[in-house]
Write a structure and sequence with these properties.
Elements lengths: L1 H25 L14 E4 L2 E4 L4 E7 L2 E6 L5 H10 L6 E3 L4 E4 L5 H38 L5 H34 L2
Antiparallel strand pairs: 1-2, 3-4, 4-6, 5-6
Helix pairs in contact: 1-3, 1-4, 3-4
Amino acid sequence: MYSEVHMHLEEKMQKTINVIKDDFNAIRAGRANPAILDKLTIEYYGTTTPIKQVATVSAPEPRMIVIQPFDRNAMVAIEKAILQSDLGLNPSNDGKIIRLNIPQLTEERRRDLIKLVKKTAEEGKVAIRNERRDANETLKKQHKDGELTEDDLKKAQDEVQKITDKFIQLIDDLSSKKEKEVMEV
């Protein structure tokens, strides 16, 4: 009975990890990473559409991202989306492709990005802890309803804590890796 709670808990925690990974990918470090554009959308024929669905995005050089729209009509919208984003990049358009030169990060910008990484990691940990609380409440309800014995409740709560510890450690590892990436010169 309570293994169902654990499976559900792991699923929810894995979704939290996936969100954190996406958020970390969107934080640009000192090198070109097409994933920084993943969250940008444009208005394309009346529909809000992710850039990667209207263009090929690649990083042919360590400090350059190239965006090649499938339809030239999307170029202005893509440029506008990049300029309005908080990426701090200036697109250059030659009529066929858009180039984004990734400048070296200043020390101040690196510190700001590290703060953002830490904030994202902490938000993830809070979400994990909330999921732990919800799982424990479900287990307590099952115990109250007579579905779990006192010993089973204790074992189940210990397992919930082990799962929580595993995911918190995963967040710490991802955060540490992203911080190192941001600090690379």
